[in-house]
Every structure is written in C-alpha cells, then in structure tokens.
Amino acid sequence: ILNVEQSPQSLHVQEGDSTNFTCSFPSSNFYALHWYRWETAKSPEALFVMTLNGDEKKKGRISATLNTKEGYSYLYIKGSQPEDSATYLCAPDLNTGTASKLTFGTGTRLQVTL
Amino acid sequence: DGGITQSPKYLFRKEGQNVTLSCEQNLNHDAMYWYRQDPGQGLRLIYYSQIVNDFQKGDIAEGYSVSREKKESFPLTVTSAQKNPTAFYLCASSPPGSGRAREQFFGPGTRLTVL
Fold first, then answer.
1. In this predicted model, what pLDDT tens digit does every residue of B38-64 receive, in sequence order?
2. Which residues contact B105 (CB under 8 A, 6 or more apart)?
3. How far is CA A57 from CA A65, A94, B82, in A?
4. How far is the C-alpha of A7 from the C-alpha of A37, rounded, in Å?
5. At a CB cut-off of 8 Å and minimum separation 6, what does B84 contact?
6. Does B103 touch chain A (CB under 8 A)?
7. Cα(A37)–Cα(A44) distance, integer angstroms
C-alpha cells in the first residue's frame, strides 16, 4: 500500500489569511501529482495536474509546487475566502504500468470564516 | 449539459443482496474509474477501465464486479462477497489524449447502506 500523507488534517483560518498544505508521497515510480478540491455536497474538482520536478502551477489565488525527488507538493492559498472552504485532496500517480492510477491522501479540510 | 451522472444518490440494501450502481458520462471520455470512500480514509480505487470491453482491478476489487460494454457506461456491482459494502462510491472519467497526466472528472456519488 502506497503511503500518501497530507498535513494538516484540518485547518481553520480567517478570511484574508494565507495558508498552505503539504502532500508527501513515495518518490519512486512517480508519474504525476493531482490536486483536487472537494466542497461539501459537490463532486471533487481538479485543481492541478503536475508532472515535472520544480513545476509550479497557479489558478487565481491558489498555487502549487512539486518536488518529485523528495516526494512532496505544497498547495498555497493566498488571501483565503469563505468559498475556499473545502477538503483539498492530493493524489500521486505512482503506477508502474501504462494506465493512470491515483492514490489519494485523506485530505486537508479547510474552513475559512469571516 | 456534459457530465457524469450516478444513480441513485442514496441506496439501501439488505445484507446478502447484490446491488448495481450506475455511472454514465457524455463527455466522450475513454477512461472510467470507481472509487470508494470510508470515514478517515482517502478515496480507494476499486476498478478502472481504459477502453470499452476492457477493465482492470484496482486496489480493493474483492467483492466487486464491473462491465464496460459501452463507452458511456461503467456500472459497478457490489456483490454479497463484499464484507463491508456500506460506503460512499464515486465514479470518475478522464479525457482522451496523449500521455496519462489527465485530470479526472467526478460524478456526484452514491451512498450505499447495507442493512
């Protein structure tokens, strides 16, 4: 069983705070790293898919970095808003075969209050 | 509207009965996936299919079966052999294209309760 760890498990911040989460994963057999946002009562929604060591991606106030050699990724949210409240999932693709197979972490649950 | 539909949203079954969960997509995606979520755990892959008439076991396939007769449909059957079937089940698909670093699109999920 591949070990994908996300920290913290949960986070409570105030509107306007910036925050970041960590995803760590085995660095062997790495192909890609996915980040998803899962809001309550909705479906998980893709944020980023990253493949290259040192990759950095940005979508609005959210950005992510990737270190494949040491096996970690950071997700940053700048100036958190209540609508950012969700569970953030990371999922590396570590499959040795040709198909994409993701191993999900348990997520970081973010709550942003006014 | 393009998307992935799962039905029903809530499903109740008696222990020992097989039950089939529906997953349909009109996104023209080749690959489809079934995941299971339990409290305190990440999504775990049950089965996946890269093309029609082909599917592979995921990490927790025991007690489940699937079929992929049409591109749009990937039903999951939870058999009586599955020891702990009560869970939230998510279906996903990913678009065609070169390489495999493609995001997955998720359905709304089915919550199965076995009484």
1. 988 899 999 999 999 999 999 999 999
2. A43, A46, B3, B4, B25, B27, B29, B92, B93, B94, B95
3. 7, 20, 40
4. 15
5. none
6. yes
7. 6
Taking alpha carbons only, the member of B107, B93, B42 closest to residue A89 is: B42
B42–A105 C-beta distance less than 8 A: yes
HSE at residue A66, side-chain half, CA atoms within 13 A, is 23
Instruction: Copy the structure tokens of residue A92.
Output: 């590396």
Residue B92 to chain A, least CA–CA distance (Å): 10
| Nearest-angstrom CA–CA distance, A62 and A76 | 6
pLDDT tens digit sequence for A29-87: 899 999 999 999 999 999 999 999 999 999 999 999 999 999 999 999 999 999 999 99
